[in-house]
Fold each of these.
Amino acid sequence: MSEAKRLAGEKAMDWVEDDMVVGVGTGSTVAHFIDALAGMKDRIAGAVSSSEQSTQRLRGHGIEVLDLNACGPIPLYVDGADECDPGRRLIKGGGAALTREKIIAEAARTFVCIIDPSKEVEVLGRFPLPIEVVPMARSLVGREIVALTGGQPVWRQGTVTDNGNWVLDVHGLSISDPVALEQLLNQVPGVVSVGLFARRPADVVIVGGTPPRIR
Ligand code: 5RP
């Protein structure tokens, strides 16, 4: 799948224009995008990064990393996903970067999602849904998730997010109404963010292949 990821990451360069601030996601597919972006580093205004991991890779290429607060709305966000449905709604957070990813997606005019074909699904939920939680609320949120969804939350032990929080992965969901579930789970005290990108889905999906497929 790494070849498909590379092809998707490189194709996303078609959306990058001179003098842009580019929002950059997290993960192995995005790593290919960052490597391709390096070839244009002197022509963009800089990048807004969704994780320490991506920040390191960007800086390693000499790409300036900017504070979102200093940028206002940004024209473009490029990120991967763990699952993508036919409505371009996503599950994200396999790399535990979901909160910052969601913030940048919200700030972006265009969200380009780059995936390999294995990420395409008819209904979201085969991939366990990541939820970032404030540590003291882990058990509380877990119980509420069981009551609200019937899913089985599993604590991703050993993982601490860049924001100092923990992650629950919710197994056993079949998400027929992603917008409603996102809104429901967002309301549970202690939930920092939900790895459902449905209220703000991707605008464009690039599926890596020869040639890449645009959805
Ligand atoms: C990180 C993410 C990633 O976009 C997602 O996990 C996909 O990763 P990869 O490109 O390595 O398959 O949401 O939080």
Note: Residues 25-29, 79-82, 92-98, 101 surround ribulose-5-phosphate (CB under 6 Å).
Amino acid sequence: MNINSLDRKMKSISALGVGVKATLTVGADDWHTVAVPRAGIRSMTLCDGPAGIRCEDPTSASPDNFNQHDSFPATCLPCGAAIGSSWNPELVFLAAAAVAREAKELGVDVLLGPAMNHKRTPLGGRNFEYYSEDPLLTGTIAAAFVRGVQSEGVAACVKHYCANNTERNRLTVDEEIDEDVLRDIYLRGFEIAVKRGEPYCIMGAYNRVGGQFCCENERIINGVLRREWGFDGLVMSDWRAVHDRVKALNAGCDLEMPFQTKKSSAAVARAVRVGKISAETLDKSVWRLKRLSALTAAEGHKPDYDENYIISRRVAEESAVLLKNDGTLPVGNGKKIALIGGRAVNPKFQGGGSARLNARRVTDIMTELAKRADVIYAEGYTEGEPDADKFAAAVKAAEAADVVIAVLSSPSTDDAEDRDRPGIELSPGAYRLVEELLKTGKPVALVLQSGAPVKIPCADRVNAILETFLSGSGGGEAAARILTGEVNPSGRLAETYPLRYEDCPAAPYYSESPETMRYGEGMLTGYRYYTTAGVPVAYPFGWGLSYTGFEYSDLALTQTDEGVHISVNVTNTGKRDGKETVQLYAKKRESLKRELIGFVKVEVPAGRTVRAETVIDPEEFAVWHDGARTCVLDRYEVVAARHSFDEGLKKNFAPVMPLQSANINEFNHKGEQIWEK
Ligand code: BGC
């Protein structure tokens, strides 16, 4: 839709009284905006997000506004950690569109997602919702999600802007980040999502950055987001993240959510009358709200829930990462499988907090595997204190089988909003169970259900490990299809699995209840640190095996007006069709070994060679330097690699940077006027 032509059709909002306009800038209740029918402004419905739609059933007997049990059943996508590991923006687009169709059916105008903060430490409670420890991967996936949602006439709301990387003191913590690090790591994903995804909304985070609350942060909202990036959509606050409504509105936060008291809008009206907020500032916010209601007014298609289930299963299939395999997987025909672990029947398929929803049609591994193979099940262990009898029954089942598949999850208290994880360990019982199973001498494959990196039991002694994350509605079927070889796994880690938490670069700076969180590791976050410092890891960023093998040859780079074209041959050396993600890294600055500049996922039939090609923005070579993004080296070593530690194929390249045109206040990044009365 052409936003400018839409603007012209709108009646002027200047004629509304200040009091009415002020009311519009605060939510009507937890999930709705205020309506002013005489001005053509309708009430909009806002719902979480991001794994699916959590929309309260108004007829529910005991609505509490945040309880997923009272919400309409919805297809649950795999969590963000999984989605990031798919490295497949096209599939993410389809999945997001599926969620939006379900939203539209329920009259939802704004989906509160994608959630896309940078994963600074594996302890972050909301990491399961977020995509990656690399801003390019994060931003690319987020942009695809935004486009998918908005393709169905629902607004996406990118959250939480910005640097919302911990749940410790999350409502007040001040993130102290050097400017170049803020720009290249913590803002970069948002910048990509804004410029390539063009979201209609952004949600300001709870925390502070540089001493100012994000929703009241003039520099971050009006400065970077609007003036520099040309964002022309609506900025809303996270729920109760506004402390000073006048400051927030002046900083560019258009909508305070949810409804708190009449005080907020009264304060706004008073501030306009005494000149503390300009009439134009208020008009702009109301105009953005009105435009949002016009952009989301379209009728939706009726969702096909069976199709959406299949989409959620496909995402689970493309995101599961085969971390280790000595040939035990896939389990061959006719083999007797001992399936161990309570999570095989009662999966941990989603995280906690605002992302949690009332999921429809959740499949489990037990049911799905039993349809495909000869399975004996024993619970063995799920959570809490281990039970000797259950252990004994599991060992007995293992002894009677050809192969053991043990399904384990992160503790149920992990992977939730409002609390960081205490560590990366599973419950002690999980480690003991695997020890017992290994004693039987049978091959043991582990299936993990976690929203963030975990310390994997006996990782060096088990025969295979499949990380399935919190894999949503179709996760059980997806896992069964991978375990039996119907599907060849193709997920690649979007974050490093460290050997020990203490190895993580942010660990020394990560305090228990911080007033201020100093990002002392600077640019050395995630794989940028491990590869530069040569610190060994359990599984590197970008890692993931397949049931086939891949080889690269003939890397080529050229530049045209379109961008930098990078291509490489990928040969499938095995007997199964498979998908490979070619990762492109460059050494962009002296202080770091390599940084991701592009990626492309390709399907390669068994025994064949496919040319993997992508076009990247030359800006990917640039870094934040002296107040601008610029190339600091003359030549770049570009590497096409299978993961962040892989030597890969190398070629030197000197990109030509296009001249940057300056953005000014009233234009978006495409040069279109973004504000007219
Ligand atoms: C979360 C947001 C969420 C909002 C509404 C907040 O606590 O941080 O992600 O969208 O609640 O549920």
Note: Residues 89-105 form the longest helix (17 residues).
Amino acid sequence: MKITEADVVVTSPGRNFVTLRLTTEDGLTGLGDATLNGRELAVVAYLSEHVVPLLIGRDAGRIEDTWQYLYRGAYWRRGPVTMAAIAAVDTALWDIKAKAAGMPLYQLLGGASRTGALAYGHASGRDIPELLDSIRAHLEQGFRAIRVQTGIPGLGTVYGVASSAGDDGRYDYEPARRTALPTVETWDTRAYLRHVPTVFEAVRAEFGPDLPLLHDGHHRMTPIQAAKLGKSLEPYDLFWLEDATPGEDQTALRLIRQHTTTPLAIGEVFNSVHDYTVLLQERLIDYVRSAVTHAGGITALRKVLDLAGVYGIKSGMHGPTDISPVGMAAALHLDLAIHNFGIQEYMPHSLATLEVFRTSYGFKDGLLHPSDSPGLGVELDLDAAARFPYEAAYLPVSRLTDGTVHDW
Ligand code: KDG
Ligand code: MG
């Protein structure tokens, strides 16, 4: 079954998405998510100029060989752009193979290991009362695990905190402030470290000890600051503390681990198993945060997760709205199939996004299920996609109070 067409589709139903659509000689189509938030067009060029010409005429059934050809066969390996492009090809080929078999993809990955994937939602508030309302609203929507982010006294807008709910009652990351240049936010880590324990104290006082609570540090602490935060949050029994320190520095996690028993998660910006080797072999983390979209696809992420399983480390795949519904569906098939599943991040997409991407996955009683439709279970409406042209959008840049650029 040869690949006859490969189309790179850019659409922006409220935020930008890049999708690879492969078509085979017998008319099957497969989708892969290649969205790299804020650097979307770099992946479009990589795919269109350097990958699409290699795909036409290839056997769509040779998924592993195609992965190795695009990764090992190219001199320049790894990196977010390359690996998002390879991920899209890999995901689209799995979609085609599962459609050809007439099965939901999770069946080809070994079948279901559970009835559904426990999802966590994003509660946030500019202050504690607003946060508590947001947690209540998420519990009403059915979430059984909650990420907690708040504004910080003395600082303005803080990334990851909703400034207001959108028209459909949901909030998103940066698209509310779409601009050709990134906006700037002010950051003060000491103020943050003072405030966060008081937030978790209030949340536990209101919701009790059972509710799994998560928190994202967005790579903004030094190792010793992160160690201090992990220690100060121990009384509140977090499910995880995420992205405490900058992603490039695997040994930073060693220092944090020496000081705290708060579980640690990292990896949404990683793109290779080589970003994880020290972390896994030394058991420095508890959860692998990579998404299918950014880690080289289902083929590559499955291998990372199998290695993690050897060390008792679980999955916690990245699932914000800049992972497209195609990337989310791919995650859900993997979540259902692997043994060492931990939790799945889930930010529902906007109604406009769901007009472009017709999904079949479902969310019920806190669990996500990819559905039993053949393949990934997502279809792309090209006419709807064309109605939402690309618009530049960037994540904000953080500067300290003295103007110094700070880490992501
Ligand atoms: O593109 C960046 C976002 O996906 C990221 O900041 C969201 O940290 C995030 C999360 O945990 O979902
Ligand atoms: Mg994160």
Note: The two ends are 43 Å apart (CA to CA).
Amino acid sequence: MSGPDAETKMQFVYHLRARGVTDTRVLAAMEEIDRGQFVRGIFAGRAYEDMPLPIACGQTISQPSVVGLMTQALKLTGRDKVLEIGTGSGYQAAVLSKLARRVYTLDRHARLVREAQAVFDGLNLVNITAMTADGSRGLEEQAPFDRIIVTAAAEDPPGPLLAQLKIGGIMVVPVGQSDTVQTLIRVRRSETGYEYDEIRPVRFVPLLEGLGRDG
Ligand code: SAH
């Protein structure tokens, strides 16, 4: 499948910069991964607009500038073992895969995991493992993680995820009690505890418990 033309890509990167995505490695990864591969049907032509778009199972692919800012906030080193909660389309995981050693991504909808896996295979992104699971429990068998990114909003950072973060590790998670007002926060784990800082207001679909019923 052919990607976007050079002009579209240039505009995309220019806009990401204007929205505060300044890390050149993050910009390079986002230039490399074609968002058009992760959007289907009538919205496919809008993949290079800075908007969230509908995907299967009533979910959304995040806005590119938010993907960029979250990825940047993780401060990846290239050697990281990353856990993502909320595979969705797989776009965020694909961007992470270019900047980290290994990415585990979980979604509660089996269909989304299946479809994302097919895109990862097509792009030969072999360092991503996608699994159907309730991500609010994390992924005990692969813990601890250098980085954790949650792409669905919780009231508070889930306890199992805090516990599965390495000392020295970073987690990025949208938190908030309502569907409309949430804050993206960064959690750093040190020897003595957890430090929190706020990044910006965001709006994500909710982190729900249990598995989806789509089969
Ligand atoms: N990162 C995605 C966007 C995620 S949308 C992308 O790049 O396209 C949020 C996703 O979180 C949805 O697919 C939803 O099914 C998933 N989700 C919500 N609660 C979850 C949970 N407890 N465990 C795993 N996934 C969850």
Note: The chain is about 25% helix and 25% strand.
